[in-house]
Each structure stands twice: as structure tokens, then as C-alpha cells.
Amino acid sequence: MSFVFASPDARALPLHILEPDDLALWTAQQSDFVRAWVEASSFKGALCSALMVPGADGAPECALAGYGTAKQRARTRFALAGAMAHLAPGTYRIAEGLPPEDAATEALGWLLSSYGFSRYHGAAPDLPMLVAPEGVDAARIEILAQSEALTRDLINTPASDMGPIALEQAARNLADEFGARIEVTAGDALLDANFPMIHAVGRAAAEAPRLIDMRWGASGPTLTLVGKGVCFDTGGLNIKPGSSMGLMKKDMGGAANVLGLARMIMALGLNLQLRVLIPAVENSISASSMRPQDILTSRKGLTVEINNTDAEGRLVLADALALADEEKPDLVISMATLTGSARVAVGPDLAPFYVDEDAIADALSQAGRRMADPLWRMPFWEPYEAMIEPGIADLDNAPAGSFAGSITAALFLRRFVTETPSYVHFDIYGWQPAPAPGRAKGGFLQGPRAILDALPTLLKL
């Protein structure tokens, strides 16, 4: 799967995109044969429907794609991609019916519909290809699709093949592709380099914990991305029940998403200085596991009481955020599959985010709508600060009770970013629970397209 558009010179079937109210007018302008074919097929222009129309020799002459009503499209992220699934393999060009304001989104959805995770079960099937619609930036859309495919592949790969070592290699491969610089601190060297909480979380696993540090760009504003790279999460000594452990290969979804975003930035050649920090660990169980009620001293000097070893993501992020903060970049963004509370609050489709500045929140929210990458702002609610202060230490990694879990986790992380002008935290899910147009079931990108679109505003590019 290359996630590219067909050549404009390719022989392509015309694809007519039709809403239900437009169908009668369109068929009235066609031959008797075509009218009869459409009527016999029961094609009504419904959302996510399609029809191949043969010519006199029986070979396809054109195709129809149902575009539904505006109300229906508002409930479907990639409407045209739903029709693509019902088209025969081949090459298509948009003949009519696609609103110019929808062209870029629908073209992206078409490319994303080509995604399938086939590492363990053979070659992908032949799929319909699209000539890029007129007026869209085809090269940019291809980069977005290819970068999302990277994110999906990383999340979909099980921990047997995507542990801390493999995640490091994925970052190295990306650095090699775009000429980035990379340094990795692993094992007991984390203690020497003052990353005690990354070490404490990952020391029980077979593969040593590590901090991946990648840099790209020599000029422009400074942006640091921090992604949670927990390659598998047993919960540690507070072990998860089996029903909660089944999807824990995706607990490195924050790392996968920041690598996807980093790929977009580098492939597009944005004028900024990028740094990517990924604490890569497995939260496992052995004689060296951290214990409930242990107290850890973080890189920033804040002490943390461990009241649940299954709240490990915020610990590894805290050390990485403290490192990011030391350089005082213009913007720090963290992404993590951090809390179940966020899923309870907004479900799997929305990516909740936290930021203090209203202008940044507005820019991200608007970009999410433009880029079919929906976001939802959540509050850094100051009155809840007391909930993360246990008394015996500076911070509590798992406040008692079930209230406001995503907010208290975000407040915990904010304690480690005190010098940077702006900080945004995303508590993502990173998983598509059921197939939808342009969104295969499995690992999923949430937030990077919106962030990319908002960067000119956020960093004054």
C-alpha cells in the first residue's frame, strides 16, 4: 500500500457523485440503457452506496457514488470512502458532484480506505484508485495518508514485535528517512542521566526501558512532541484483569501518534525546530517491579507516591516532559493513551485536549473541524489540584475515587512543564473500535492532522 493517487494520465472511469435529490436529473440526461440499469439496480444515491454502470460491450463505462444528504454526511467523517468500498478495482476520476470544499477531505478518506494491516496474513487486495480531484494539494494529502499509515502500523503491531527495542528502531528508521538526529538512553544509564521514573516503570520488563530523543530542523520556532511509549501495560503489581489487558498493545499510541505527526512535519519541510521525546517501556511484573506506596523522585525533583502501579504512563511522561521543559521550547505537546476516564467522557471518536490559552484551544478546535480530526477541549481545573497532593509526597500518581481521572492526570503532567510558554496535552484513545469509512478497525491517528493544520497559528510559521 503506497497511499498515492493514480496518475492524471491514467485511463480512468468517470465517477459521478450524486445526492438522492440529484439522481432523477442525472438519469434523465442518460441513455435509455443507463436509465434502465440504474432503476433496476435500486441505486438511490444513498450515503456509502455505489453502482458500476456498464457500456454496450459489458465493460464498465462509469460509476456512481451515493453522497447521501448533508445531514447524513455530517454524521460520517469520510462519506466518499464509504462508496469506494463498493466499487470494482480500477482507476477513477471525479466527473461531477464533489463540492470543492469537501474535495481534500474526501480525497484523504479515499487514500485512508486503502489501509489494511497485512503484516501477518499476506498481501493486500487490489483496491480502487483515484486520480486526485482538481484543486487539491495531492502531494500533501499523500503525506498525511502515509504518515497515518505509519501510526496505524505501529499501534497494530503486537508487543511481541513492538517492544521498546522495536519502537526505538521505528524512530531510527524515521530519522534516517528524513536526516534527523537521534539519541537513545537505555537501561541503568537512565539513572545516570536522571530519568528515575522512566527507569522505575520499565525495569521489570525483559527489554530495558529507554528514552528516545530525536531532533530535526535548524531554524524556526521550537516544537517538542512527547509521546507515551508503553509498549504493553500489564498494570504492574496492580495487575489488570484480562478484560482490560486485551488492547494494551495500543498503550504506545501516544508515541505512534507523535511519530506520525513528526513524519508529516519533516516530509512537508516545515520551517521549525522539531524535537521528539518518547519514553519507551513495558510495564511488566518481576521481582524488580515498583510497588504501591513506593515514593519516586522525578527528574524535576518532585516526589511521587505510587498508589497504583497501573497509572504508569504519567510517570514516564513526567520525566520526558521535565527534560523538554529544560529547553523552554515555544510549544510542548504531549500525546498519550492515558486514562479510561477520557473515553467515558467523550468516547473513542473525539480526542480530548488540555491547554491554558484560549487562542490555542480555538485554533486547534477549528483545525480539527477542517481536517476531519475532531478534538474536544477539556479543562485544567484548578480546584482539583488538591486531589493529586497526597501529603506524604509532592504528588499522587493515582488519586482515590473515580471522579475526573483525565483532568487529574493532565494536572499531574502540567506540574512538570513550568518554563515553557505553552503546553498542550492530548489524552487520546488511539483505536478505532469498529470499521467506518476511511477508518479500519484497529490502531488510529487522533490529533496530528489538526495539530499540523494549526501549527502556522500556534507557532507563527
Automatic annotation (TrEMBL):
Matching Pfam families: Peptidase_M17, Peptidase_M17_N_1
Record organism: Puniceibacterium antarcticum
Annotated SUPFAM superfamilies: Zn-dependent exopeptidases
InterPro entries: Leucine_aapep/pepB (IPR011356), Macro_dom-like (IPR043472), Peptidase_M17_C (IPR000819), Peptidase_M17_N_1 (IPR048816)
Name by which UniProt lists this protein: Cytosol aminopeptidase domain-containing protein
Sequence similarity: Belongs to the peptidase M17 family.
Molecular function terms from GO: manganese ion binding; metalloaminopeptidase activity
Domain of life: Bacteria
Lineage: Bacteria, Pseudomonadati, Pseudomonadota, Alphaproteobacteria, Rhodobacterales
Gene Ontology biological process terms, A to Z: proteolysis
Domain (Cytosol aminopeptidase) ranges: 308-315
Keywords: Aminopeptidase, Hydrolase, Manganese, Protease
GO CC annotation: cytoplasm
